[in-house]
Structures are given as structure tokens and as C-alpha cells.
């Protein structure tokens, strides 16, 4: 099953930075790699700039043509360590077990820079992780994307596990470009070509192994922020939603109205006017986001007030407490006690006295 490329989400421009680094290490100039994309090199560092899938495709076509290497996708996937994905990557690293990390990947895969969807399952002593639903694009570039994402998945899974991710068998939906031995050597396993799907097969014994960087509380609140980002990606694309995305772009940092306006390529006055026509204001949006995140942190984590205040962009916990009283009518400590008590009662009534 394929998806039309115009239905794919727009990725941040920084999605091109990791593969661009590889191309530059191979001796190619940034201008060569970006030729025809309509992108300036300086835009790649701006968290507010998003690119179309067609612009991405042009970059990967350039990489393929410049290198002349049909296996270039493997090299381009190697820099995609979990930290490159921001909130999503840190949620993976702090997951309790590898199974939990795969659930997060399946749920929030749209927050990677991939055009594919991800699935995993278990069959007895074997588990599998698949990459599917490819976009309807030209086959040569699609194979580059596929190799890139398989290489990136192996890098990410090794980082999450704290040890090399051992693949027992790899299924590839393409013909291996006449270089199947190189695929076998790269992934260290048997390779099945022209398979119905791209899929890693590995031992199910690693699924419930505790992860070295496990921090369930952190993973939970990071997943909540991922849910917020997914909600914005699947919204109707209003101007308010675009501004929300810019406000949420960097965890713990909340840009001012001038910065957001500049990111949108407009004056502050124009941004304020556009928000007013949609029945909102920059201050209202900022407070709505902070209040929503504050409730999640207070109810679902054991983070101290100082850390929550910092995550919400406050330099002093007292300023956070004052703001929260204005939003909720009670102190954050009182609100947390009530929320925790309600949750405990709910669990008990449901027969889950945890």
C-alpha cells in the first residue's frame, strides 16, 4: 500500500542536516546537495522552517546522483541517533523496556523524519519490526529512503538498548542492487530480497529487558508532549495551529512574539492581527500551552516544582506558582495533591489498586 506524497506531513528543515553532514564528509558542497530544493543552507538551523516532501525528494535525488552509490541510503541513515528527533527521541531513550520503546515508535512515528509507518509484533521466540506504507515516488529514491530508515533504526535501537541491536534476518522489498553481500555484511544477518515488506526479525527475548537509560516518569511526560505535537500535525492547519507548533518547537523554551513572527516571515503586528481574526492572541496561546503542560507534569510525574517551572520557561518557581494560581485558582502543590488523589481513587474503583 502506497500513499500520495502530497498527503505526507511537512518535516522540519533540520531533517536534512544529518544526511547533509554525511554528504559534506564525502566531499560534496552544501550548495550542490541543496541545488533545486529552493532551500538556503542557513534555513536548516531554523526550527520554524518546514519543508515539503518534494523538497526532501530533490535533496535525496541529488545525494544519489552526486555519489553514484545505490547504497548511499545506508550511509545517510547513520547520523540519525535518537537525540536528533527531539522529544520523540528522548521518550525512546527513557522508555522502561525495549517493548515500550517499540510501542512509542509505532504510536509516534510521524515525529521521525520518515515517510514510512512503523509496526512491530511477536511470533513465539521471534519479534519483528517493519517499515511500510511507502509514498508513491520513484523507485530509485524510495530505495534510498528505505535503506536510510533501516540503517537509522539499527543505530537508534542500539542506542536505546545500550548494546548492538542484533538482527537475525532482514527482509528487503527491493532487489539489493546486485550487492546483496554488502547488505548481509552491513546488517550482519541473512537477507531476503524482493520481500513483501521491509522487516527486521530479532529475538523476542530482548523485548522486556530493562533499558539502561530508563526513566518512566520522564518518558511518560515526553510522550504527552509528543501527543500534543501529533495533535497539531493532524489539525486543520489553521494559523493558530502553526503558531502553537512554533511555541512548542523546543522543550523548555518558549519564544516571544517577535521571534515567532520572524519565523513566520511577517511583522509582529501582522502576526497579532492574524491571531485576533481567529479569536486568540499570542499571550492566550502561550498561557494555554503552559497551563496544559503544567497539569500534565503535576498529575503524571513526580518532577519537583523547580524542574516543572524550568520546563515551562520560568526562571523562578515562585513565578510559576503565581501563574498557576491565576490559571487554576489553587497552588500547583494543592492541584497535584487533588489530581493524585483522584487518580488513586479511580484506580482503586477499577480494581487496579497500584
Descriptive overview:
This protein has 354 residues and is of the alpha+beta class. The protein folds into two domains: 5-206, H-NOX domain (Alpha-Beta Complex); 216-349, Arc Repressor Mutant, subunit A (Orthogonal Bundle). Helix content is 52%, strand content 8%. It has helices spanning 17-25, 30-34, 53-67, 72-77, 87-93, 98-108, 139-161, 180-187, 216-233, 239-247, 257-263, 268-277, 282-300, 305-311, 317-328, 332-349; strands spanning 11-12, 50-51, 117-123, 126-132, 169-171, 190-192, 198-203. The strands form two sheets. The chain has a five-stranded mixed β-sheet with strand order 3-4-7-5-6. Strands 1-2 form a two-stranded antiparallel ribbon. Helix 5 packs antiparallel against helix 6 (98-108) and helix 9 runs antiparallel to helix 13 (282-300). It is globular. The protein starts with 10 loop residues before the first strand and ends in a 5-residue tail after the last helix. Mean pLDDT is 85; it is low at 2-7 and 342-354.
